[in-house]
Each structure stands twice: as C-alpha cells, then as structure tokens.
Amino acid sequence: MKLIIEADGGSRGNPGVAGSGTVVYDADRNVLREIAYVVGKRATNNVAEYHGMLRGLEAARELGASEVEIYLDSKLVVEQMSGRWKIKHPDMQKLAIEARKIMSTFDSVTFTWVPRAKNKAADALSNVAMDAAAAGHAPGVVGDESVGSASDQDPTVVPAAAGSAASAASAAQDDTTGMAADRSQPAANNPSHWTGASHPPTRFVLLRHGQTAMSVAKQYSGRSNPQLTELGLAQAKAAAEAIGERAGIDAVITSPLDRCRQTAELAAGVLGLEAIVHDDLIELDFGSWEGRTFQQAHAADPLIHEAWISDPSVTPPGGESLKSLDKRTRRIRRRLEADYAGRTVLVVSHVTPIKSFIRQAMGAGPKMFSRVFLDLASISVVEFFAEDARVDGCVRVVNDTAHLRRL
C-alpha cells in the first residue's frame, strides 16, 4: 500500500515552543490522519521538522504501508534524509536514526522538497501544536492525554475541534489576502504584520570571515586567498558558537575563498549542516589595487580612487565596480530567497557583499558602502519579503560583535 506524507515543523523563538504537523494520505489523496505534535518548550525549527517527518513514518508503519512518499518544505531534512548531506547536529542525528529504523520496514521511501505554499496543511497543524505547547501541553500528540517521549507516543488524528487542516489548507490556496502564519515568531513580533506580506520573510544571517594577514596589514583583499590567522580562527569559532546558540539556521552558504570557507565550516559544524559554496558571494575584485593599502592605492591612481569611493559605477584598474558586485549579490540573494523562502540562511562572505545585502534590505543609495563599518567576524541580520509586501526588506542587526568579547 502506498501512502503519502506531508510534514512540517516550527518553533516560536527558535529555540522556543515547538511543534510539528503531519498529514497522511492514501494514494488517492484521501486524508487518513492529521497529527499535531508538541515537540517541547525549547526546540528549534529543524528539530521540529524532523519530528513531523518521524510522526508520519510512525503512522505509515501502523497503517501497514509498503511504499511511502514524504513531502517537506525543509530542504535540510530532505537532503539529509536522502543521504546527500551529512547530519551533524546530535538531536537531529538521534531522530534520523529512529526514522531510518522505521524506513527499513518499507519497500521504498522517497523524500521530496516542496514550496511552503504547497505544504499548508502540515504547516497549519504545526501551528496547532505550537499553540498547545504555549498553553502548557506536554510533549506528545495534541488530543492524546498520554505523556512521554516521541517514541512512546501513538500518533492519532487531531480532534475535530482543531478542524481539518488539509481542508483548510486547500481552501487557503486561493486566498492571497490573508496573513500566513509565522512559525518562527508570534505575530506581534513579526515585521510581516506591518509590511502586508502574506508569507514570512526570508532571513539572512550575514557573517564576515575572521582575520587574515592581509586584514592585519590593512590591504585590499579581494580575490587573494589568504588563510585565517590564529586569531581569525578564534574569531570564527566564537561567531559559530554565537550563531549556534541562536539556532534556527536552515542552510550555510559561503564565498569560495578559503577565509570564508574556514569560517563557514566552523559554523556548519556547530549547526550540523553542510557549507555550500556560491561564487557570487566572492569579494569585490580590486584589480591592480589588490594587496595595496588605501593610501597606496590612492597614490597609484588618485583620480580613479577618489571617484571610486563615491561613484559605484567606477571600476578599479583591471577590477570590478561596486555596481557590478551589487548586481551579482542581488542575483544570489534572489536565488537563495527562492530556494529557502521563509527560512533562515547563514551567508558567510566578505565586507563588500555583506554591505550589499544590507544596502538592498534598507533600500539605501550607494553612499551606504562607505558609511557602514563591519568588523571581522561580525554578524548582521536582514530580511526580505515577498512581492506583495509594502517594503522589499528590513535590517534587524548590523555589525554585532558581542561574541568577540570572550576572546
């Protein structure tokens, strides 16, 4: 027997009160079970998503399935459970082991990523679970009076009072005016409520790489490829730990240069993710100014250098203009928005691409590039909204270096 599972999970606070939602269908898309599961009072989005998937597998086993198709809007869970990405986070490793034990009882199991808009039934159930968690419900299935660990719970249909999430989601497919639930924060704290956006924003946590010998010498370091210094590694580790404490990161994307890749690998290790390289996140090409200090570059090409500071269309000799960099940064930002819509992405890059993300979120002019200072291993946070919002983006944090105080 073939069964279809749609699963999702969320956390308010990330980590915070967390719940998962699961809908089990037969091959003809008739709803067999709807499961709202309270994960706990302090868990992350990713852990909650794993619970949604696991609850579906448990239900499929109980129903006697031989073939299972699982659909999630978490690329992380899909890639990890498909074996393409490693699972490093201890909590997710345990849940994956449980899942694979159940998967071994089926003839076949497939995992497929779907956009959040196609996963509204499971999303609605996860919000039922989070509401229950916030009201004091113990970990377990909403409507099930028993209490215990995930492995002790018997997935059951959500009580009728909760309504049919699958039916509600189907009706909501054509409703583009309502506010979609934000799984990461209560509505009052979510900027979506004033932007008019119908979907949660895509959040970018922007991490600048740690110190290199060229940054110590205050040299232009664009396409050069220096390694992190000992202090740079310590800075990157401190940033990784700070980001790990925040949790809720769905992907780690990095510039191809070693200083960023070293920084990204440390963060990815803490988060239990893989660092994915994107060339568009590389630093500005400074051309003949590469390896020179500000004063040396100005002495070599005073007119061009002076114009470059204030005009984003001016190109360093043999290099790349700020306008060109901003264009490619916008390209990768939009691609990541499409791939991780409504999620949180850690972007590890260089000072100029990060300023470009901030400029785009603010809707500011090119002067911003010379008016914002970003320390090594600093953290900034920006968000971008769907096309129906009143604004394109907003800035939450710029140049957070609190984590470096411990060094």
UniProtKB/TrEMBL annotation:
Residue segments, region Disordered: 143-200
Pfam families for the chain: His_Phos_1, RVT_3
Gene Ontology MF annotations: nucleic acid binding; RNA-DNA hybrid ribonuclease activity
Binding annotation for substrate: R259
Catalytic residues as annotated in Swiss-Prot or TrEMBL: H209, E283
Bias kind Polar residues: ranges: 186-195
Protein name (Swiss-Prot/TrEMBL): Bifunctional RNase H/acid phosphatase
